Amino acid sequence: VAQTPFLLAAEGLNKSFQGFQAIRDLSFYLDVGELRTVIGPNGAGKTTFLDLITGRTKPDTGTMLFEDSHDLISMNEYEIYRLGIGRKFQTPTVYTDHTVYENLVLSLAGSRSVWKSLFSKVSPDQKDRIYEILKTIKLQDKADWKGGALAHGQKQWLEIGMLLAQDAKLLLVDEPAAGMTDEETYRTGELLLSLAGKHTIVVIEHDMTFVRQISQGRRVTVLHQGHVLCEGAVDHVQNDERVIEVYLGR
Ligand code: ADP
């Protein structure tokens, strides 16, 4: 039986900051099309782990392969971004003075030069793609709105749209529901679920209602002290003695 290649295979990652071990013998395997949620108490190493994937931080030891062939450890942040690994930080970083449409154009170009991409011509295909994304993120009637005029939740969805415009194969999404109303949180879950399968997504999240919404029939990874404490179905993970202990701090 041929082995299905992982989209991402990280093995034996270790990372210390001034003697403090933030990531400890961490291994993590991600299938193509998976929507994986990573949970864990504050300081568990979740952000640092995303930093290692995107090349923002380099591990002390370990290996990390993308699509079976690309050695992420030897690549810089920009090369990793160009491979198709996109990240959305917890705080939205949309261009507030540009319209929603322009924000997507800027991401589409994948260019680091804002001006160049805004003044270069958008092809009909690219335009179609942008409108398709606007529909996906349910902002089709806000295309002409300035990014800064959007509500917090809408900014988060625009940022997810920007990752789609980049054609990111792997979307790393850091606490998408932070600061959202219950209604916005639910809609964010629906959005991520609609992307699963077509895209591979790693979500870091604290809100367990939200985690449960997006994790039915999927795997959840629990990080603790820089290590995978437990991994599996959300019910299994939530009932795991070690997980309960870590969360309740007993
Ligand atoms: P989480 O995202 O799960 O809350 P982090 O990855 O942010 O956890 O942090 C894990 C641990 O590593 C924390 O104790 C944090 O203080 C430490 N840490 C993270 N980045 C640095 C850094 N650049 N320098 C020193 N310590 C860091």
UniProtKB/TrEMBL annotation:
<keyword id="KW-0067">ATP-binding</keyword>
<keyword id="KW-0813">Transport</keyword>
<protein>
    <submittedName>
        <fullName>Urea ABC transporter ATP-binding protein UrtD</fullName>
    </submittedName>
</protein>
<dbReference type="InterPro" id="IPR017781">
    <property type="entry name" value="ABC_transptr_urea_ATP-bd_UrtD"/>
</dbReference>
<dbReference type="InterPro" id="IPR027417">
    <property type="entry name" value="P-loop_NTPase"/>
</dbReference>
<dbReference type="Pfam" id="PF00005">
    <property type="entry name" value="ABC_tran"/>
</dbReference>
<dbReference type="GO" id="GO:0005524">
    <property type="term" value="F:ATP binding"/>
</dbReference>
<dbReference type="GO" id="GO:0005886">
    <property type="term" value="C:plasma membrane"/>
</dbReference>
<keyword id="KW-0547">Nucleotide-binding</keyword>
<dbReference type="GO" id="GO:0016887">
    <property type="term" value="F:ATP hydrolysis activity"/>
</dbReference>
<dbReference type="InterPro" id="IPR051120">
    <property type="entry name" value="ABC_AA/LPS_Transport"/>
</dbReference>
<dbReference type="InterPro" id="IPR003439">
    <property type="entry name" value="ABC_transporter-like_ATP-bd"/>
</dbReference>
<dbReference type="InterPro" id="IPR032823">
    <property type="entry name" value="BCA_ABC_TP_C"/>
</dbReference>
<feature type="domain" description="ABC transporter">
    <location>
        <begin position="8"/>
        <end position="250"/>
    </location>
</feature>
<dbReference type="Pfam" id="PF12399">
    <property type="entry name" value="BCA_ABC_TP_C"/>
</dbReference>
